[in-house]
């Protein structure tokens, strides 16, 4: 029992590991073979054995889909049952293990129902068209073989159709002839034929192959593009034939098949009936790709192994001499040709898989959706791994691939297991170093090479991944790895992130994006079409090498070649094509200023290093005595180190003109933050706190010894918008001080508060005596509520560090709770006690714990600090800060880092911020609690998650209209979830937040790279009923400018004198709080704190006209309505606004009324 | 609606309140002249006191009203009546109530005179130089005698019917501390009291508190020691000090818990295992039904599941 568990754990780790673990595959296969069901209860509790009668064995839902026990044959949730097992059926209950959870399974079922292909109107139309096309093709007459020159001009003259020859074009003097003969067969292939096409695609796409007769080809036609020339001519003939027959019904265009320039195809779309509509505007409902191909035995497959050369140098007449040099092999050309031979063979294979494995189709649909949401596709520009490759890979893995030729997947896997096992394979095994060979008779004849991945189909001797580049393969692996991690996260329902969300927006995905013109990096050597994959290899190598460990991932995204008219030779304008390079950086190293190269003694490496870096390389001697080649970057140029490197590399390698076309973007949004977003900005503050703690602990003569000094302030967890050490006037940071227990404390709440004051007085005396360089004074708070904390001690160092100390005495809680139990308590007193208890828990227990946890998370994720600050700025800019506690904002931002799915944890502030907005727009706060594990180490166990969720549901039952609790935000240090939100926000505010986030998300997704970040931070004030414009100086931003002026009023001089005695003076905040207290029942105020010096207001709808009574809690005007007996009361808006103006005095500059 | 307001047939009475319009001059930041409505009547609390007869009740007091304002209003517009004191509904905004402690160290402004003075010791210093009041609040104005209260009410009615213009805060001027930033600044200054003063206040409070405590302990000790007339001895708190005893109790509790744990484990008997399995199975089914419900709800909420 113990052994499999151990094994499983190992596999779990593999999923997060870079290295591939062959052993895991071994165990995979062997388990399958023996088919033994594991009796172990799953370690993480996801799976539980239920009684035998139910017949499920604990099969892992975690590490990998494990094998189903023999006993269960037929009883498992087999996909054939899926349709039958709709909601209501009991089958799903036993799906534990075969699916992540039954919730996951139910959602997958629902999704599959939605994307399952259906026979609809457009399908009928398309199929009718297929028949017509087939008929036409069958009736087309053959054409005599003719030399190249003649056919091209002949065809153009006769039917205005161009022959889409690949480049290089056939030499006019070539001695081979081109012909057209009746096709051997025509057939529908691909996902439509297999019924694995997803209905969610915008247009129905059908692949139709036309098998060219073998008689047209000679044995050696695979060489030097001859096959492709013949194919191109054949295609042109088909185009001509179809054009003459169906010019009115269909539109015919050429397109590179999956972006492969060697293989153009004809794309047939319906001609729009209404002439008024342009074709571009309305996407056609369906399209048929007409793909010429050949039968499998046309050429010898051995000639097309990846290490063979099939494009010989034609300038020297070397056709007869086979090149000995395999370095000049042409794998892409070979595989591309080979793929044409295997069209029907693969169709058969996939069909076979669908027959033997019930869940194969579903797995294909899921895989297709998964790929599609990640922007991966069969086309070269989309990575070369799409739905076809997925289906073929799964089909092959069902047949073999494991050790000893056994299959990796089992026919009895559920669709989820198939998906997960395939992802596991992609994630853990590096196919570039260790190609996967399936069903090869002679074993591993395929060696790894040139950094591109290989999945070798031995039966068909074909590399399935031939269209993949090193970077697109890396991207695929990253995505697979992320998804696996997500699916293993037992606290997270990964369904949405796996299949619903779109993951391919550059702004969410990449920290930086470089845009270039494609032609600038093309050095001409790759102009030939068969080198299509290599065209950006140099760019990739240069950037990868130059940036080194600064980047985690580098992705090159060329522009897609569009289709072109059959009467033009313009094969997708290549000159104006743009190229995007997306980068994910390592936040720790991205802006490192010094790069160390090899030591001077290693001559060869040193020379290579110098050659690579040019003038930038210099020899430096370091402290430890080593002498190394080094590259040093400046920090003062205004450009980040990252941008400098990119620009330098591009310029050095691709010439000056590239710099003019290149734009390097990323991080623009952080410019909105004061003093930038670096995580190091708060280091001095944290140092200051440490110093303070040492100072306090060093004091002698305290009546009690100190148990704990804890920070409880955003400034001390890297999360305040303003950087404390750069602020104009320091804001004291809250500190909680706890003394050792003593029996001498009074046992009365009021007396405890007074005793605290006595302690603070003593403390301040000691501090002033011991440390000369600071001021310490006691301030009062909560006046009028004597049972609440009455005083705090402000300690302000001359350096500017300021702290506010409150004393925590744990007896208070007991006393408060005892009072609550007292039945005889007056309701008003009870309210105070409840408030006191909430404040006690919040200020003395939750706030320090939250601060500690969050500060820890910030040091784990350097980008978190900036993200939180930016998000707070966003809330403030939209005047929501007085409604949403800072801690809630912090939890929202932290969520993006600890539950980053479907991405990895953000490595820059920009992605962090945008993804947070994206989630905020999707957050359904009515039904979903926010639960964040701040420990990031799995402190939050599923059981706790469950109990928090139960608390949430209890709240919703208790308060269904959400008068008290709107947001529910819990963390591992605060399972209550309402500490920061109870009674703070209203539904109106929450709704506004969602609306603003949705608008921001729409803006991000629409503008993409052209996004103007400032636009996310502005919202019109006209949405509010009235706006109180405050003295802008109160924001504390423009003080410097004001200093030069001579104050016109005596009282304005007050804040010019900015010494320590003014620390803590914040009229803006005081005024806002006071307004809320005075008019809370009539007006909803919106404030942006110091970031936006306006207070906006909405009249509470409850202030509408109503019968006059004595207990209306706002200023009213009596109104007599003709039809009503009773006197009505109308809120006296003008009078209230005038009162606000009077109360504010100089603070209020202007009150603007938008609506009456 | 606005038409109704503007045509303004002067409303004199709402229930038994006289509606007294008060004009407030325009200000630069809100250049609009506004009218505020005070609702005035004779004070009629549920439990009348000897003073009720000379009191006037005002509803919808402006937020910035002070005793000076009210006095000026009565003196200048309502028959020159002299006001003895004004009690606002919420002595301080947002302060709620204080908790009655043993000896009621509750602060009451304008409270009954017979309240014992010695209990007011050790108050903390005031932090605002001018209070403001909740919008729509009430106040009770105590005039010097009953006739003056009656005069004030009569004058109020007359002012309304004759349309006499009443200006709020006229003639108050510099008699009250200013509002606006100056007030906040004053608050800031008052908030940080002198340490010596604070020390004295705390010392005096603690002194009084310990005196009380001592008295109480004496009382309890006496109760413990002496049987009452029926011959029973009252059981009272005391003896050892609270926190220390509590810590001990806690430890005891932990100890017990630990011992409990070491007893028979819950998988010792066969029936336990069986039952556990059964529970788990039930839990699984329940979980599944729960999930089904969730998905159903989700479908209702979001409609169809479709990839974006």
Number of helices of chain B: 7
Q: Count the domains of chain B.
A: 2
Query: Radius of gyration of chain B in whole Å, from Cα?
Result: 33 Å
Mean pLDDT of chain A: 81
Question: What is the helix/strand order of chain B?
Answer: HEEEEHEEHHHHH
Question: Would you tell me the overall average pLDDT of chain B?
Answer: 78
State the domain count of chain A.
7
Computed over alpha carbons, the radius of gyration of chain A is 36 Å
**Could you list the spans of chain A in which at least 5 consecutive residues all have pLDDT below 50?**
1-95, 275-281, 316-327, 1038-1057
**CATH C-level category of the largest domain in chain A:** Mainly Alpha
Gross morphology of chain A is: elongated
CATH topology type of the largest domain in chain A: Poly(a)-polymerase, middle domain
Helix content of chain A: 25-40%
Q: β content of chain B, as a range?
A: 5-15%
Number of strands of chain B: 6
Protein architecture, described:
The complex is a heterodimer of chains A (1156) and B (308). Chain A is of the alpha+beta class and 1156 residues long. Chain A folds into seven domains: 2-73 and 345-500, Poly(a)-polymerase, middle domain (Orthogonal Bundle), CATH 1.10.1410.10; 121-317, Beta Polymerase, domain 2 (2-Layer Sandwich); 506-588 and 642-666, Alpha-Beta Plaits (2-Layer Sandwich), CATH 3.30.70.3020; 594-632, no CATH class; 681-849, Beta Polymerase, domain 2; 861-1019, Poly(a)-polymerase, middle domain, CATH 1.10.1410; 1020-1153, Alpha-Beta Plaits (2-Layer Sandwich), CATH 3.30.70. In chain A, the strands form nine sheets. Chain A has a six-stranded mixed beta sheet with strand order 3-4-7-6-5-13, sandwiched between helices. In chain A, strands 19-20-23-22-21 form a five-stranded mixed beta sheet, with helices on both faces. In chain A, strands 12-14-11-18 form a four-stranded antiparallel beta sheet. In chain A, helix 25 (827-860) crosses helix 26 (862-877) and helix 26 packs across helix 28. The radius of gyration of chain A is 36 Å and the shape is elongated. The termini of chain A are far apart. The relative contact order of chain A is 0.06. Mean pLDDT of chain A is 81; it is low at 1-95, 275-281, 316-327 and 1038-1057. Chain B has helices spanning 2-7, 67-76, 146-162, 181-191, 195-225, 242-261, 270-302; strands at residues 13-14, 17-24, 34-42, 55-61, 83-88, 137-143. The model of chain B is unreliable at 1-9 and 92-119 (pLDDT under 50). Chains A and B meet through helix 4, helix 11, helix 23, strand 21 and helix 24 of A and helix 1, strand 3, helix 4, helix 5 and helix 6 of B.
């Amino acid at each position: 029992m113990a052994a499999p568990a151990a094994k499983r754990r190992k596999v779990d780790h593999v999923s997060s590991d870079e290295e591939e673990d062959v052993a895991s595959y071994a165990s995979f296969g062997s388990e399958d073979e023996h088919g033994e069901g594991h009796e172990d209860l799953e370690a993480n509790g996801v799976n539980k054995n239920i009684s035998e009668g139910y017949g499920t064995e604990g099969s892992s839902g975690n590490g990998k889909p494990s094998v189903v026990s023999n006993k269960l044959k037929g009883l498992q949730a087999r996909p054939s049952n899926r349709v039958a097992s709709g909601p209501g059926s009991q089958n799903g209950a036993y799906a534990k293990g075969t699916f992540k959870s039954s919730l996951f399974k139910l959602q997958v079922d629902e999704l599959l129902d939605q994307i399952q292909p259906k026979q609809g109107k457009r399908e009928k139309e398309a199929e009718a068209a297929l028949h017509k096309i087939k008929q036409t093709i069958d009736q087309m007459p053959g054409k005599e073989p003719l030399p190249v020159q003649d056919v091209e001009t002949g065809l153009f003259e006769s039917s205005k159709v161009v022959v889409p020859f690949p480049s290089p074009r056939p030499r006019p003097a070539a001695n081979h002839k081109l012909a057209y003969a009746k096709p051997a067969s025509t057939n529908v292939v691909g996902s439509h034929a297999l019924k694995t096409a997803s209905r969610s695609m915008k247009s129905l796409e059908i692949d139709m192959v036309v098998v060219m007769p073998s008689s047209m080809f000679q044995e050696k036609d695979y060489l030097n593009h001859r096959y492709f020339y013949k194919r191109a001519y054949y295609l042109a003939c088909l185009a001509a034939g179809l054009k003459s027959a169906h010019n009115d019904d269909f539109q015919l265009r050429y397109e590179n098949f999956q972006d492969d320039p060697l293989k153009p195809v004809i794309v047939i779309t319906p001609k729009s009936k209404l002439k008024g509509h342009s074709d571009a505007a309305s996407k056609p409902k369906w399209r048929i790709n007409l793909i010429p191909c050949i039968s499998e035995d046309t050429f010898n497959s051995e000639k097309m192994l990846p290490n063979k050369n099939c494009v010989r140098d034609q300038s020297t007449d070397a056709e007869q001499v086979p090149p000995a040099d395999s370095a000049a092999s042409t794998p892409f050309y070979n595989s591309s040709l080979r793929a044409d031979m295997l069209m029907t063979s693969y169709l058969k294979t996939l069909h076979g898989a669908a027959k033997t494995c019930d869940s194969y189709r579903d797995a294909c649909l899921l895989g297709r959706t998964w790929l599609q949401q990640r922007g991966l596709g069969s086309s070269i520009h989309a990575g070369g791994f799409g739905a076809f490759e997925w289906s073929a890979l799964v089909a092959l893995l069902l047949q073999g691939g494991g050790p000893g030729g056994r299959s990796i997947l089992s026919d009895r896997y559920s669709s989820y297991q198939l998906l997960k096992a395939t992802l596991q394979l992609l994630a853990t095994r590096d196919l570039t170093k260790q190609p996967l060979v399936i069903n090869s008779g002679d074993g591993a004849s395929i060696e790894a090479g040139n950094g591109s991945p290989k999945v070798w189909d031995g039966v068909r001797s074909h590399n399935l991944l031939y269209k993949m580049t090193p970077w697109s393969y890396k991207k695929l692996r990253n995505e697979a790895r992320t998804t696996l991690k997500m699916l293993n996260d037992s606290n997270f329902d990964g369904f949405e992130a796996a299949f619903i969300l779109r993951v391919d927006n550059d702004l969410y995905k990449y920290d930086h994006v470089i845009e270039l013109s494609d032609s600038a990096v093309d050095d001409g050597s790759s102009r030939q079409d068969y080198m299509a994959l290599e065209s950006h290899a140099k760019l990739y190598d240069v950037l990868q090498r130059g940036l080194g460990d600064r980047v985690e991932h580098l992705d090159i995204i060329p522009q897609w070649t569009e289709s072109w008219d059959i009467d033009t030779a313009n094969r997708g304008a290549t000159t104006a094509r743009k190229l995007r390079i997306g980068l994910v950086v390592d936040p720790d190293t991205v802006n490192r200023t010094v790069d160390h190269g090899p030591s001077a003694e290693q001559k060869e490496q040193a020379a290579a290093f110098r050659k690579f870096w040019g003038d930038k390389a210099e020899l430096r001697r370091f402290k430890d005595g080593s002498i190394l080649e080094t590259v040093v970057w400046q920090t003062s140029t205004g450009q980040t180190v990252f941008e400098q490197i990119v620009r330098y590399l591009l310029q050095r390698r691709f010439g000056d003109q590239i710099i003019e076309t290149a734009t390097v973007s990323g991080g623009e949004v952080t410019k909105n933050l004061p003093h930038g977003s670096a995580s190091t900005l708060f280091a001095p503050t944290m140092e200051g706190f440490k110093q303070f703690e040492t100072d306090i602990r060093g004091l002698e003569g305290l009546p009690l010894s100190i148990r704990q000094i804890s920070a409880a302030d955003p400034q001390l967890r890297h999360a305040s918008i303003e950087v404390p050490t750069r602020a104009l006037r320091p804001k004291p940071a809250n500190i909680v001080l706890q003394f050792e227990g003593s029996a001498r404390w009074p046992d009365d709440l009021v007396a405890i508060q007074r005793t605290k004051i006595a302690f603070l007085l003593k403390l301040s005396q000691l501090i002033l005596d011991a440390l000369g360089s600071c001021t310490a004074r006691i301030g009062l708070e909560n006046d009028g509520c004597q049972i609440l904390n009455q005083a705090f001690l402000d300690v302000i160092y001359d350096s500017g560090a300021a702290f506010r100390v409150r004393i925590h005495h744990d007896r208070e809680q007991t006393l408060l709770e005892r009072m609550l139990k007292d039945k005889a308590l007056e309701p008003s007193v009870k309210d105070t006690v409840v408030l006191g208890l909430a404040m006690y828990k919040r200020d003395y227990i939750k706030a320090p714990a939250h601060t500690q946890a969050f500060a820890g998370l910030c040091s784990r994720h350097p980008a978190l600090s900036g993200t939180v600050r930016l998000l707070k700025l966003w809330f403030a800019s939209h005047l929501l800060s007085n409604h949403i506690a800072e801690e809630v904002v912090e939890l929202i931002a932290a969520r993006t880092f600890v539950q980053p799915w479907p991405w990895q944890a953000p490595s820059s502030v920009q992605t962090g911020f945008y993804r947070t907005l994206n989630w905020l727009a999707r957050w359904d706060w009515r039904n979903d609690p926010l639960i964040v594990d701040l420990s990031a180490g799995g402190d939050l166990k599923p059981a706790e998650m469950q109990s928090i969720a139960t608390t949430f549901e209890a709240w919703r039952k208790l308060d269904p209209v959400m008068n008290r609790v709107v947001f529910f935000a819990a963390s591992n240090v605060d399972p209550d979830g309402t500490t920061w939100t109870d009674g703070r926000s209203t539904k109106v505010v929450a709704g506004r937040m969602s609306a603003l986030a949705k608008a921001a998300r729409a803006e991000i997704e629409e503008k993409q790279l052209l996004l103007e970040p400032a636009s996310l931070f502005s919202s019109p004030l006209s949405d509010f009923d009235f706006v109180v414009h405050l003295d802008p100086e109160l924001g504390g931003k423009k003080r410097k400018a004001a200093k030069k002026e001579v104050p016109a009023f005596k009282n304005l001089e007050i804040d010019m004198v900015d010494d320590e005695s003014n620390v803590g003076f914040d009229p803006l905040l005081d005024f806002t709080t006071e307004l809320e207290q005075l008019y809370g029942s009539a007006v909803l105020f919106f404030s942006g704190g110091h970031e936006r010096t306006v207070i906006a207001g909405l009249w509470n709808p409850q202030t509408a006209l109503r019968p006059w009574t004595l207990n209306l809690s706002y200023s009213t005007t009596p109104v007599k309505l003709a039809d009503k007996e009773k006197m009505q009361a109308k809120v006296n808006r003008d009078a209230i606004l005038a009162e606000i103006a009077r109360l504010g005095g100089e603070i209020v500059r202007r009150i603007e009324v938008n609506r009456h | 609606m606005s038409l109704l307001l503007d045509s303004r047939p002067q409303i004199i009475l709402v229930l038994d309140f006289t509606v007294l319009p008060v004009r407030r001059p325009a200000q630069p930041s809100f250049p609009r002249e506004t009218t505020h409505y005070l609702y005035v009547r004779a004070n009629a609390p549920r439990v009348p006191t000897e003073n009720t007869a000379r009191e006037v009740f005002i509803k919808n007091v402006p937020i910035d009203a002070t005793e000076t304002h009210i006095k000026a209003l009565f003196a200048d517009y309502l028959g020159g009546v002299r006001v003895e004191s004004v009690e606002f509904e919420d002595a301080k905004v947002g302060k709620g109530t204080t908790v009655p402690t043993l000896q009621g160290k509750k602060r009451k402004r304008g409270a009954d005179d017979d309240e014992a003075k010695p209990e007011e010791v050790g108050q903390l210093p005031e932090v605002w130089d001018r209070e403001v009041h909740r919008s729509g609040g009430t106040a009770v104005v105590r005039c010097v005698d009953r006739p003056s209260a009656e005069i004030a009410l009569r004058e109020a009615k007359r002012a309304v019917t004759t349309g006499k213009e009443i200006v709020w805060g006229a003639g108050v001027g510099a008699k009250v501390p200013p509002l606006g930033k100056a007030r906040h600044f004053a608050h800031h200054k008052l908030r940080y009291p002198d340490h010596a003063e604070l020390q004295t206040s705390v010392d005096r409070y603690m002194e009084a508190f310990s005196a009380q405590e001592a008295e109480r302990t004496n009382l309890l000790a006496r109760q413990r020691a002496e049987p009452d007339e029926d011959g029973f001895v009252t059981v009272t708190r005391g003896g050892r000090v609270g926190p220390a005893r509590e810590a001990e109790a806690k430890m005891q509790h932990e100890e017990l818990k630990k011992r409990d744990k070491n007893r028979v484990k819950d998988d010792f008997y066969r029936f336990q295992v069986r039952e556990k399995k059964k529970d788990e199975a039930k839990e699984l089914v329940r979980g599944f039904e729960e999930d089904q419900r969730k998905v159903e709800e989700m479908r209702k909420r979001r409609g169809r599941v479709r990839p974006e």
